[in-house]
Amino acid sequence: FSEVHYLTIEKVGNVPVTKGNFQSLPAHVQTWLAQMIQLCTPKAVYISDGSQEEATIVTKKLVDYGQLSPLTKYENCHICRTDPRDVARVESKTFIVTNDKHSSVPHSREGAKCVLGLWMSPQDISKELDTRFPGCMTGRTLMVIPFSMGPVGSPLSKIGVQVTDSYYVLLSMRVMTRVSPDIWRHLAHGEEFVRCLHSVGVPLPAAQPIVNNWPCNPEKTMIVHFPDPRKVMSFGSGYGGNSLLGKKCFALRIAGRIAKDEGWLAEHMLIMSITNPKGEEKFIAAAFPSACGKTNLAMLTPTIPGYTVRCVGDDIAWMRFDKKTGELRAINPEAGFFGVAPGTNMKTNPNAILTCLKNSIFTNVGETADGGFYWEGLEEETPAGTEVTSWTGEKYKLGEDKTKKSSHPNARFCCPARQCPIIHSRWEDPAGVPISAIIFGGRRPEGVPLVIEAFDWKHGVFLASQLKSESTAAAEFTGKQIMHDPFAMRPFVGYNFGHYIQHWLDFEKDPDNKLPKIFHVNWFRLDENNKFLWPGYGDNIRVLDWIIRRVNNEDVADVSPVGLLPKKGSINLDGLNVDWDKLISIPKDYWASDIDETLKWLDEQLGDDLPQDIRKEIQKQKDRLSQP
Ligand code: SAT
Ligand code: MN
């Protein structure tokens, strides 16, 4: 075998390796890289070591090129403006490829457009990829990034290698994952790794003008997942979710498939701990669709005295039931935060602001004349009259023209998690942290109470399956539509969603599993004047406190047709002026039509793949709602 490998490898010899030692890499990595080099025809190969020196050199290169510029107000922070056509994930161009269609996507009903994953056959995708990848790195450097999702060497972690022609991706991957030459040692005996290929899709000389020094190829963008050979191929976009392949592509879509095969969970969830005034600490995981405030919740500043919050992760959780103790243990596979910038300020999320004052990259935000970042939400912290350059390059003075927007609504900060002032001391614990409660939530302007506790595991899985939320700027959708987003995983699931729901249900079958309680929250309910009924942000601790009391089985809940609701007076509302009855009410008409709509949607989308247990839960909810 090795001889065959060496024959292929020799072809790499034509392309100079400008950093690192190719021959010292594990043989199976060399083989794969040789194929990638042959396919993409770069002018050079660069093997990243993830070091600070490397980051400094690459940053300078990008500053000279004009893709980054320093934000001089802070230490080692940079701003980047993308081509305005490349600003978010593109779900319509994100595919899962398997031989068998229905291992990837459900048996949707005739005529229904499946929105729970897009499948393409290996034959069809080959044709697409053949018009994209051959020669795609001509004139560019192919970078090799060895990374770990999760602490290097943890039994819960997984390894990937990303090839990319984007220096921005190299710098961001270094923040978001653990990039280190140690990875090669963990692959020394032919161990599995996820193969991640990324190209901005602009070989040189470029066929079209490059906008903002941000090469990309929106017409041909395509993000393709091969769950069986554990491979991702992404073309044409430099934006985070499309290009930092360790994140959604690997840690959710590919890892989700691995997790199903191996009996664990890869979820779009934050992980945090709450310590109450008695000093008891509990860890929770919470799933919300993109841009619904996961980062804010993960590091919230409690508004009621005596509580401490610590952050373990803000976006992705890998969780498995411990064989010995039955506890659900979770790790954050990431090493950084890639958070939505607009709306973040010293009131809504001081910890996020404090995390990103050094070593951070800001994408598609505004810049103040004195070298600071600026975005919508920082008005009170930035003097009126300050000159701002918007993400599109327009200069204006703050406060003078209220129609001007400094930032793209999906503008992002990318910062190292270890810099977070309230990062948990165990955030890198290789054994993970024990989860006591799982929360699901979305933006629901109407009808949905502040918090609901599921009756039991099955009911909780049903609550998660019927998750809906108002659309956000994190994807390509426009307008404020309420979209189904079961488990907050609609864009991120890597296999048949019916099987995914069944996988969740199956955890109940092992009597040794200590199943966490499941909750549904809604911070976004509006009154008749379109004003939020709940203050949100730091005041969400009041709801978390109630949730923890329910975890401790305190008698603070009442039965309702849709789940357990907090008893009046059981949530601490000291100092708030809220309309409790409106906040907790469950308008029967709304819920009666909502459950019909949910059943219709789930049935259309999943057809016979919708687990029977969910159909039964829906029927039970209908029965409860129709009781007088
Ligand atoms: O997809 S990203 O990871 O870039 C952001 C998100 O949608 O959560
Ligand atoms: Mn996310």
UniProtKB/TrEMBL annotation:
- InterPro entries for the chain: PEP_carboxykin_GTP_CS, PEP_carboxykinase_C, PEP_carboxykinase_GTP, PEP_carboxykinase_GTP_C, PEP_carboxykinase_GTP_N, PEP_carboxykinase_N
User: What cofactor is needed?
Assistant: Mn(2+)
Under the heading Pfam families, the entry gives: PEPCK_GTP (PF00821), PEPCK_N (PF17297)
Q: Where is the Phosphoenolpyruvate carboxykinase C-terminal P-loop domain?
A: 264-624
Which keywords annotate this record?
A: Decarboxylase, GTP-binding, Lyase, Manganese, Metal-binding, Nucleotide-binding
Q: What is its EC number?
A: 4.1.1.32
What is annotated about its quaternary structure and interactions?
A: Monomer.
PANTHER family cross-referenced by the UniProt entry: PHOSPHOENOLPYRUVATE CARBOXYKINASE, PHOSPHOENOLPYRUVATE CARBOXYKINASE [GTP]-RELATED
Q: Which family does it belong to?
A: Belongs to the phosphoenolpyruvate carboxykinase [GTP] family.
| Protein name listed in UniProt | phosphoenolpyruvate carboxykinase (GTP)
